[in-house]
Amino acid sequence: MKIMNIYLHSVKDVTEFVNEISKVEGAATIYAGRYIINAKSIMGIFSLDLSEPLKLEIENWKEEYAPRLEKYLAE
User: Fold this and answer.
1) For the chain, what is the radius of gyration of the CA atoms?
2) Could you tell me the CA-to-CA distances from 66 to 11, 23, 36, 44, 63 in Å, in that order?
3) For residue range 2-21, what is the model confidence (pLDDT) as tens digits?
4) Which residue in 59, 16, 36 sits closest to 7, CA to CA?
5) d(Cα 41, Cα 31) in Å, to the nearest integer?
6) Which of 4, 40, 45, 74 is the least crowded, having the fewest Cβ atoms under 10 Å away?
7) Residue pair 21/40 in contact by the 8 Å Cβ criterion
8) H or E element: which one contains 58?
9) Element (H, E) at 49
């Protein structure tokens, strides 16, 4: 399992992120305050406050996923 903080600043970021995270095997979950969202759900992500960092949890983490998600990492 891997947990990281991400930022999704724009509609384009969300669309590209969902495209990339959909290639991840197993569960990917976003935690935003009291909300828990399937990270592969574009509608779910758009229901969140995207001005704050989101916590992303990937259940079956593989190092090959890192380059795909690097641009979304919160600094």
Assistant:
1) 11
2) 21, 12, 22, 23, 6
3) 999 999 999 999 999 999 99
4) 16
5) 13
6) 74
7) yes
8) strand 54-58
9) none
